[in-house]
Amino acid sequence: SGYMDGFKIWKTLFEDGVQGIIRGDVGIGRRVLDETTSRSFAGCALCTDFLNFKDYEKYNIPKQEVPDFIQKRDDESIGDYRDRLYRQYRIPTVLSALSDLKLGHVEQITPLLSRGINSTLLSLPENLRGDKLLFKKIVDEFEPRIEYAKNGATARHNAILKSEKIVALMKKEMNSDYAKSIFSQDLLEYVIGSMRVEKNGGGRKSHKKILKDYFKRMVPYSIKYRLLSVRKRSIDPNVLAFRIFITIYMHKLLKNSSSNL
């Protein structure tokens, strides 16, 4: 969602003479209780992790070939598995791609990914690595007190992907002949029929949303993570539609580029 403004943020920084940014990426992940949430937080969830997409092969989608390093090793704890996925998958695959998008506008440094800091982090016991607990403990002792941000600076996914304008755009693309040449008719019909519009997506929060956010803040971490581990997850049809939309767009772009060679 941080890039859905057409890179206006980064364009403005460049035009204002800002030459670089400092990111706080670290080589450890969030606290998790099982393999599925470890993969999810690292950004490499599988189709079979989702209740409503376990049978993805019936839509003529090729069988997922999962690299060996994605699998948890027998002698590996959940915490070690989580952090290994973060270092071997999320940083070089996800974060590097997001960084590459910004580098046309600004330089970027990530000091917390330095070898020395990473080595120190990996020497810590698991209970201090997850969710940056040791870092928070140190910062909490600073005077004057440093407050943590409680809300994200970018728009919520629902505010974008469930807006009437974006849903209409994605449906139009998925109804095109080009889309049908890439994806099966069954998949396109399923996604189009499952998408939803939230008219309040970008406006004020509903009372239900306010209560839900309050509940999240009040519930202890231990209970939150246990709920995450037992919850049966489903992929949001609007998110799936957006992935299909991007695939169609990139397919066109690469096909046109190759024809011009």
Summarize the structure.
By secondary structure, the chain is an all-alpha fold. The protein contains 13 helices and 2 strands, in the order H-E-H-H-E-H-H-H-H-H-H-H-H-H-H. 13% of the residues are buried.
Structural summary, described in words:
This protein starts with 7 loop residues before the first helix and ends with a helix. A two-stranded parallel sheet has the order 1-2. Helices cover 52% and strands 2% of the residues. Helix 2 (35-42) runs parallel beside helix 3 and helix 8 (164-174) packs across helix 13. The relative contact order is 0.14. The protein is globular. By secondary structure, it is mostly helical.
Summary tags:
13 helices; 2 strands; two-stranded parallel sheet; 261 residues; mainly alpha; globular
Give the quaternary arrangement of the chains.
single chain
Shape estimate: globular
Instruction: Describe the strand arrangement of the main beta sheet, using strand numbers.
Output: 1-2
Q: Give the biggest beta sheet.
A: 2 strands, parallel
Q: State the helix count.
A: 13
Q: From the helix content, strand content and strand pairing, which structural class follows? A: mainly alpha
N-end to C-end Cα span: 33 Å
- N-to-C series of helices and strands: HEHHEHHHHHHHHHH
The averaged pLDDT comes out at: 86
Q: Hey, roughly how much beta strand do the residues contain?
A: under 5%
The proportion of residues forming helix, as a percent range, comes to 40-55%
Poorly predicted regions are: none
The strand count comes to: 2
Gyration radius, in Å = 21 Å
